[in-house]
Fold this sequence. Notes:
By secondary structure, this protein is an alpha/beta fold. The chain is built from 16 helices and ten strands. The chain has helices at about 15-25, 30-35, 65-75, 90-100, 115-130, 135-155, 165-175, 190-200, 215-225, 235-240, 255-265, 295-310, 310-365, 370-395, 405-415, 415-424, and strands spanning about 5-10, 40-50, 55-60, 85-90, 180-185, 205-210, 225-230, 240-245, 270-275, 290-295. The strands form two sheets. The protein has a six-stranded parallel sheet, sandwiched between helices. Strands 2-3-1-4 form a four-stranded antiparallel sheet, sandwiched between helices. Helix 4 crosses helix 6 (about 135-155), helix 5 (about 115-130) packs antiparallel against helix 6 (about 135-155) and helix 7 (about 165-175) crosses helix 12.
Amino acid sequence: MMEIFVVGLSHHSAPLRVREKLSRGMSNEQEVLGELLRIPGMSEATLISTCNRVEIYGASEQSEQVVASVQQLLSDRSDEPLEPYLYKHLGRQGVRHVFRVTASLDSMVVGEPQILGQVKQAMLQGQQHGALSTVLGRCFETALSVAKKVRADTQIASGAVSVSSVACDLAAKIFGDLAARRVLLLGAGKMSEQAAKKLMAEGADLWVMNRSPERGQNLAKAIGGHFVSFDQMTEQLSEADVVITSTAAQQAIVTVDQMKPVQKARKHRPLFFIDIAVPRNVETEVGRLDGIYVYDLDDLKQVSEDNLKSRRKEAHAAEAMLDEYVEGFEQWRNSLELTPTIVALREQTQQTIEKELMRFVQSLDLVVKPDEKDIHRFAESMVNKVLHQPLTGLKEATKQSGSQQILALVRRLFALDRTEKESK
């Protein structure tokens, strides 16, 4: 039977240094997806690679073997041993994990909306490569319905609900009041845009620096801030109070050597970096310089934990909602195997009864013998009577946990797989 599985790591299982190394190795997502589809036994697949998780989602009839191959693929793409950090979820637990991720119950900032867009992108990528079909495709479609229901029926998204907003909360905690504080945004992507909107509401003096001048200028104009080019980095770092970095650079753009003249120019005035990029934009050693303080995603985790306390009741309510959807999906998935099993069992039983009836009729010394149509109708009636109760019980049993084992046992007891192969 086709089974959903998830293999990966996240902020729950791996520190940032591990996540960013794997993130670099997974940067070419199309190439990775091609490799996944070449794994023997892989029927459907897609992946999500974000600042807080790298996960492979798949469907296979040989999930244990395929999972081992996926784990090896991930390890091959990382400079860091991954065995202590990787997790796997199979079957029902895999389905539940997909639903939890999509509903933002597994996010560092529970309730954040960005993961929904990332899941949709993973779906689109899988569809474009022909990698999503009946089972995994249905799982993701259901996951989107779950997320919509959770947001509509709970207050899970109240309060700070993104990494960017948590970063702003941290900046506010550092200074108490951000009014007139000079904040430099390194990067003009979605995360910077979200941070900018909140900082603007706090009255901060915003400056935007971005590799693409057009995008940086557009963001600065939209928030009433100032755009500066990258060649003014040293000057801007010397003037800023807080720097929030979120560029897509694969290597650090703020280094120790770069910060030494900045440190001297600041004359002991503290500077706070809040680095929300993966891979990190600020070298770890920068935080060891006097008067320079660097916070990364792992540091923000504690801030988000404090934020979650006020929404924990809503999170519990959302978790309870998942049970119904997981059960519904599992019943649907079981039906994919139940229907062919029932058809095969009925056909086998019908053929056996017809064969024995024909043999019996041939043994009788009858003047007028029943034709094959009469025998077929009689055999069909016998099948309905003989199999009615067993098939009713089988349908009920497959609604419960362990249904895969039940169906496998039925097919084995009645040699249905062997019969189907012989008929081919």
